[in-house]
């Protein structure tokens, strides 16, 4: 299922919604289409509109300030683009740089995406102890970047340059 990016009236990223929900918001005149999928159209008895990729709400929605993106295993895999931090192959697990048994926490800066083989090989050691240097250092994405990273890579690449470049 394709995700549609929802922008506030001020063009700030708010969330992602399903394609169907985006169409409903547009048809109810609560949002306008800022960017559409070039090859997809939504057709009905009296409706023929382009399938929205990015929509903007017509009215400003006040959002409580969120200083940090919430940590999650899925978020770490998405942040690292499902690439192992040790070998670069497809990652399916999350590894703690400082193992939990040594006091490591579930934080953005202490977790990286890892393939099962490297996760098992590193075991209960730090990368230095295991002789497995990280290909890239973990980082904490901003809430807006975390949302943009959650979009599929082909959707992210198709976003307008002014919107998609901060998360790339």
Record keyword descriptors for this entry.
alpha+beta; two-stranded antiparallel sheet; elongated; four-stranded mixed β-sheet; 168 residues; 7 helices
Written account of the structure:
By secondary structure, this protein is α+β, with helices and mostly antiparallel strands. It contains seven helices and six strands. The strands form two sheets. The protein has a four-stranded mixed sheet, with helices on both faces. The chain has a two-stranded antiparallel ribbon with strand order 5-6. Strand 1 and strand 2 form a beta hairpin. The mean pLDDT is 86.
How do the helices and strands line up, and which of them pair or pack?
Blueprint: E1 3-7, E2 13-18, H1 19-27, E3 31-43, E4 48-57, H2 73-79, E5 93-96, E6 111-114, H3 116-122, H4 127-130, H5 143-149, H6 153-157, H7 161-164
Parallel strand pairs: 1-4
Antiparallel strand pairs: 1-2, 3-4, 5-6
Provide a brief overview of the structure:
The protein is of the alpha+beta class and 168 residues long. It has helices spanning 19-27, 73-79, 116-122, 127-130, 143-149, 153-157, 161-164, and strands spanning 3-7, 13-18, 31-43, 48-57, 93-96, 111-114.
Q: Which residue ranges are poorly predicted, with pLDDT under 50 across at least 5 consecutive positions?
A: none
Query: What share of residues is helical?
Result: 25-40%
Assign an overall shape.
Answer: elongated
Overall SS class? alpha+beta
Note the quaternary state here.
single chain
Strand order of the biggest β-sheet? 2-1-4-3
Count all strands and give the number: 6
User: How many helical stretches?
Assistant: 7
Strand content: 25-35%
Overall radius of gyration: 19 Å
Main sheet? 4 strands, mixed
Measured distance between first and last alpha carbons: 22 Å
Mean pLDDT over the residues: 86
Order of helices and strands: EEHEEHEEHHHHH
């Amino acid at each position: 299922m394709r995700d549609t990016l929802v922008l506030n009236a001020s063009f700030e990223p708010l969330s992602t919604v399903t394609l169907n929900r985006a169409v409903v918001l547009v048809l109810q005149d609560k949002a306008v289409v800022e960017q559409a999928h070039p090859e997809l159209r939504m057709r009905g008895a009296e409706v023929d509109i382009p399938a929205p990729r990015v929509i903007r709400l017509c009215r400003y929605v006040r959002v409580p300030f969120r200083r940090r993106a919430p940590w999650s295993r899925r978020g770490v895999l998405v942040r690292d683009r499902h690439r192992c931090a040790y070998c670069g192959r497809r990652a399916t697990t999350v590894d703690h740089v400082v193992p939990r048994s040594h006091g490591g926490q579930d934080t953005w800066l202490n977790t990286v995406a890892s393939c099962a083989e490297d996760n098992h090989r590193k075991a209960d050691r730090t990368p230095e102890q295991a002789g497995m240097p990280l290909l890239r250092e973990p980082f904490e994405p901003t809430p807006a970047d975390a949302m943009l990273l959650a979009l599929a890579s082909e959707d992210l690449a198709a976003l307008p340059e002014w919107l998609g470049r901060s998360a790339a």
